[in-house]
Design goal:
Layout: H1 39-61, H2 73-99, H3 120-135, H4 139-167, H5 169-177
Length: about 190
Amino acid sequence: MHIAPDLGRGKKGETVSDSQGGKRRWEGREDLTGEHALTDIGQLVLALLFAGTWIADSFFLHVTTFLNGTIHPAIRIPIAAVLLGVSGYLGWSSHRIIFGETRREPHVVRAGVFSVVRHPMYLSEILLYLGLLLLSVSLMAAGVWLTAIGFLHAIARTEERLLAARFGDEYTGYARDVGMWLPRPRKR
């Protein structure tokens, strides 16, 4: 379960605006709980760092891309395509579920991809980077990817504490039933 962002409030209840100076469309939604303060900027910095490193090393520098020859492109490319497709689906579906409708009563979201993993938005980011790494293996970019995994895990844990504080046993049960990053076998 990804914690639904409550980015409409800054410190002490002040209004937070997006980069265009407008209010965010989820501002004031009581059905959304909140997220770690560094989530957005951290994800942006890591995305730019990953993209810059991957592009520079894969297409220009070729410093740490020597592993590209170890796995044939006929194997790497289809696997990368599947990972990129799953990444896109997880990202699209989880955003649609969280931001697509306002829930009258706040509750732990167990619908769709949230019934499979607790953090499908973050998992989509991890799989996106992995898919790109398979297209062109850059060890420098892999280092950024591992850093991103650590960052996403840390913010996910913080958000889980917020959810547990807000929803108590409902969230604890959800966390017991649904894996954080990997699906758990269904009980029959």
